[in-house]
Amino acid sequence: MRTPIRILRKKSSLSGAPQYLCEAEIAVDSGVNERLLRYGLGYFITHRSAAELLKKGIFRGYSGLLGGLPWSKRAECDAWERIANERPCVFLSSLPFWEGANCVTTDEHASIHALAEHLYHCGHRAIGYVAARCEGYSHERFRAYRNAMHTLGLPVRQAWVHGFDVLSGRAQRDLVSAARLSGKRYERVMSRVFEQVILDGTTAVMFEVDSLAHQFCAFAEHRGIRIGHDIAVTGFDDIRDARGMFRKLSATIAQDFFGIGRAGADMLHGIITGKRPTVGQRALVPGKLIVRKATSCLAGIRSGAGIDAAIRDHIEEHSAESSLPRTIASAFDMTRAAFARNFKRLFRQSLVRYINDVRLARAENLVAAGHRSFSHIAIMCGFSSQQLFTMLFRKRYGTSPRDYRNMKAAGNEYR
């Protein structure tokens, strides 16, 4: 069997690429190499473009090819499509540019939904989105954002979205133009976008990639806007920038590049050996949600953007946990003192009293049903002891749980 080939980007672009891109390529190649060695196959890396491989016919010397599909470079994608008509091809960290392309990529929809759910859980109901480039993942992540907002019942407004039309889902002209820029010209374009983001009225913004989120954090802080307090920010890629801006992000997604490389090699081997169909193969590798605990949800609380509903939902879901009064603050990325202050401002009562009211309402139904012991009910409803449960029940209903059950059994209504 002839040697499969892995296509990297051109050497000229790698030499000036950010470190995280080089690390991603190394991780992908390690995954590919690990799998191909297991199959006893050779492994060759080239810096040639797909267009050059096609023009010189070099690709015909190999039984299969692994590479990437740069959507922003139409000629390169066209060359790949022609190569794929003659040799099995699998595209890594890429989405299909044409129907039937074989691809392995991060599960963009599940990852974006995880980020959106995190922001929703922190009380944000006005969540914006900012795109960076015009690649395949750009389109996929925006569609995922739109779907996530729909699933969570949140609005998607054009004023909150930059780079895509919210109705058609197409890339806007400004994004397409910006994608062709670099250096200072690109920074000027994005600075105008950042200014608009600040004026939009959103309490949280999802950025397509971490690098763009880091730029926004630096831009906002230069203007006195506190990230995590005045506005929450998420990214995608889990990049550790030298300025420490990654610590400001509310959350991000870590991509399993090693897993992508390994899955791509598996797919290519399966196609070459006839164990898989030759076209239309797609594998999704899960991303990992990374939450920055240092970031609070004060932006959501200060805006009144539905944080009360998020807190109620959390308490209802976890009311049976005796540790809830101590752990709920960390669930919303806040200190206990700050959470208690904001809770009292929102609900006009203390956190402990509210939790006890929720627990007692549930306990009252269980007591009236008459099927379980009082000690069991106390545990089920989150009370630390039966004695505490009895004391609070008597204070709330004016009688003990036992007498209350007896009255219900006798058909008497408690007044």
Describe the structure concisely for a colleague.
The chain contains 18 helices and twelve strands. With 415 residues, it is α/β, with parallel strands linked by helices.
Question: Which characteristics define this entry?
Answer:
415 residues, alpha/beta, 6-stranded parallel beta sheet, 51% helix
Summarize the structure in words:
By secondary structure, the chain is of the alpha/beta class. Helix content is 51%, strand content 10%. The chain contains 18 helices and twelve strands. The strands form three sheets. The chain has a six-stranded parallel beta sheet with strand order 2-1-3-4-5-11, with helices on both faces. The protein has a four-stranded parallel beta sheet with strand order 7-6-8-9. β3 (65-67), α4 (74-84) and β4 form a beta-alpha-beta unit. α2 runs parallel beside α10, α5 (108-121) crosses α6 and α15 (351-369) crosses α18. The N and C termini lie far apart (85 Å). The model is unreliable at 10-17 (pLDDT under 50).
Q: Which strand order do you get reading across the main beta sheet? A: 2-1-3-4-5-11
Largest sheet: 6 strands, parallel
* Outline type: elongated
- Class by SSE composition: alpha/beta
The proportion of residues in beta strands is 5-15%
